[in-house]
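Sequence and fold
=================
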Amino acid sequence: MGDEKSTTTATSAEVELAEATRFQRDLYLYWREVQLANGLPLTTRGYLTRSALRRILQRLASADGAHDAASAQERAETDHLRLFFLRRLLQRMNLLHTAPDAAKLLAADSASMARYLAHPLAERLRICARLWVAGGWWPDAPDPHAPLPRLMSPAPPRLALARRRLLEQLARVTGATNDAPAPLSALAANRRAAGVAKSVPARSASPRRRVAQAGREDEIWLAALSGPLLWMGFVQQQTHQDDAGATMPAFQGYTATSATYALRDAEDEATRTKLAETPGRVIVQPNFEVIALPPLTAPILWLLDSCAEGTLDQTARYRLTRQTVAAAYRQGWSAATLSAQLEAVTTAPLPANVRITLDDWERHVERVRLLRDVQLLEVREAALLDTLLADRALASLVERRLTPTAALLAPDALPRVRSWLLRQGELPALIQ
């Protein structure tokens, strides 16, 4: 009975984190699509063109197992607010940027994305929430006819304060309810106790439009709950039937998810357990094919995109090739690192032939290696180079010994090596 209970709890937590995991996955997929396209065109007002918008929509839809993005053909970027929010957040994190001399959206280098994905899910959620709370880059009612807000512009004080209070309330509600999702009707009770106006119309066609006109805290909260907090996975929406039988959202219908544990000040073991990003099963086959089953997470997709080529559907299918693995090696990976990463996500040893081939491909890459602006030391006798390497204070000046009489020097090591040679009675010749 105890085992069944723990399994049910883990499954419930994974379901609650599904939207947060999906949001992080879509951040990566958006960046990846811009990178593959070598940039996407923007309109003169700074919005994605219709063709670029369709490309992004198709990319994200394929990850969800859907393939129909035809509805984007006659719609603008501001009609897809979640997608627009993804783009603006990526720009705020400097993972996307606009070209200085052209209307084009460009992707940051792979190292920048790798640094972001190296953070655990809890930290990535906190980064996104903090940037949204204080950021004027995301107005609650985006106007397609107005210029885009500057990325570094702060949010108006009333807006930022209301957003901050909402996150604080979410963190308190989560902490007070232990394991169960907390209905946000508790927020309304807290507001009544504090004497804050709580009236929110149940039939609100566009809360983000109203907040631009009124700016009341309850309307700011509703815009946040029905927009960024819902998209980022901090809350989930419940529905009820009105008198006419139509399904409609209500303020009390939003509930906190496990993702709100990231908003708490102290991160304990329970928090880390709640915020475990659990990917689907990954299988490396002896024929070098790699299959990733849903749910697909951003770190898994980044790993596979870094070392393999493939197609993305609800199930991702990749293939390890000499070219893709060589590209990973040139980015600083080694066969041992790549094998360890793949075994970590598959939770199983690699097939023996795959491991041996990865080592073999690494040796082939190392045989021919082109480097720029290197400093090479050549000596007449191997004994002189042996002496240099034996000196602990100077051994770090040699990055790699190539032959018995030649070595690759570390950057900026040339002056110290030249001084050492002079002390040894050698007259060095410098050839550019």
Summary: The longest helix spans residues 157-176. The chain has 18 helices and twelve strands. The mean pLDDT is 81. The radius of gyration is 27 Å.
